[in-house]
Amino acid sequence: MHSDALDATYEVRRYRPEDRAGVLALDDAVWDRNRGGRWFDWKYGENPYVDHVPLFVAVTDDEVVGARPFMAFRLRAGDETALALQPADTMVHPDHRRQGIFTRMTERAIEFYRERGVELFFNFPNEASLPGYRKLGWRSVDDKRTFYRVQSPDAFVPQYADGRAAHLVGQLAAPIVRGYHDVRTELAQPPPELSVDRRAGVDAEALTELYRQNPPSQLHARRDAEFYEWRFDSPVWSHSTYVAADDGDPAVGLVARTRTTNDGITIAQIAEVVPMDGGRRWREALAELLGDALVDHADADVVAITGAVVPDDVLTAYGFSPDDRLPLSKFSDHRCALVVRPLDGESWSLNGRDLTRSVNWLLSYGERDTT
């Protein structure tokens, strides 16, 4: 649709409070879910890094038919920080697609934020939306891997009718069936002075102090109390905090969370590990924390972790498989790419770090839009 015709048919503008019900109805229609007002207020209204709801809408005949929300983060690179936005939950009603609404909402957002202190966008589009971002100036950094530990193959087999697929799903549980406790013993034998404390909810104070011990030099969301109190307060998930102490001193923290999908599958995620890297003792404590979290979440059908914080060999030893290799790649036909775009379209570095190089990013679920 020509730009003039688009502007005549659809009003593309910033979100207003009276749009709330329309945005939620559109979310339900597009994503087939019922998140509700509490979720919307948490994710977009309570974000501590902006003073407004970072969302643009497309309206026609008083109906919200498109929505372009953003999550705000304070990205850190070394000793510098920058305000960054992540496009999230982008929606266009099925009856109004292929009209240029996605592009117009994005362009309007770029125009608005260019003069308001935002330095860059970063997000994780799927294969279908990736070309649209590239046309608007985004560049690919790399494909992000997610590791899964399938603990209840029976919950997934009905979705894959052919015998080969069912066999592959069954293979995912093999490392667990062979003896989870044996794997854990081989992986890490923590000394007596290493203790683990499990706490309900998210202990923002403890996690913030652990982050301050060793903040990474790569690009990541700065961890502070505001970050933890907002980012892990989603009403969709239930959370637990694990803290490993070395001879009484907190050494590593971990946040695990769970929810049940509309299909009745219980998902657990290792959503946060802090500090995000370290040496041998950090690795030992992390392995012990991960083991305790898996014991506590043994009833989950699947456990997931994304990013590069937990070493691959630790995840493999605990029965996790990456989604870009067999057998999991059999069931996934989409990419999850990290892409980035500076607001000015020219400043492709932050504190000397090239935004398009994957080695300059260290991310977890804390930075990734997951409900």
Polypeptide structure, described:
- This protein is α+β, with helices and mostly antiparallel strands.
- It is built from twelve helices and 18 strands.
- The protein has helices at residues 3-9, 20-31, 37-45, 101-113, 130-135, 163-172, 174-177, 180-187, 204-213, 225-231, 280-296, 312-317, and strands at 11-14, 55-60, 63-77, 80-87, 91-92, 118-123, 139-143, 146-150, 194-200, 220-221, 238-246, 249-260, 266-274, 302-306, 321-322, 337-342, 349-350, 353-354.
- Strands 1, 2, 3, 4, 5, 6, 7, 10 and 16 form a nine-stranded mixed sheet that branches.
- A hairpin with a 2-residue loop joins strand 3 (63-77) and strand 4.
- The longest helix has 17 residues, at 280-296.
Helix content: 25-40%
Distance between the termini: 31 Å
Number of helices: 12
* Parts with pLDDT < 50 across at least 5 consecutive residues: none
Question: Averaging pLDDT over every residue, what do you get?
Answer: 89
The dominant shape is globular
Multimerization state = single chain
- Radius of gyration equals 21 Å
Largest sheet: 9 strands, mixed
H/E element order = HEHHEEEEHEHEEHHHEHEHEEEHEHEEEE
What's the layout of helices and strands?
Layout: H1 3-9, E1 11-14, H2 20-31, H3 37-45, E2 55-60, E3 63-77, E4 80-87, E5 91-92, H4 101-113, E6 118-123, H5 130-135, E7 139-143, E8 146-150, H6 163-172, H7 174-177, H8 180-187, E9 194-200, H9 204-213, E10 220-221, H10 225-231, E11 238-246, E12 249-260, E13 266-274, H11 280-296, E14 302-306, H12 312-317, E15 321-322, E16 337-342, E17 349-350, E18 353-354
Parallel strand pairs: 4-6, 13-14
Antiparallel strand pairs: 1-2, 2-3, 3-4, 3-5, 3-10, 6-16, 7-16, 8-14, 8-15, 9-11, 11-12, 12-13, 17-18
Helix pairs in contact: 9-10
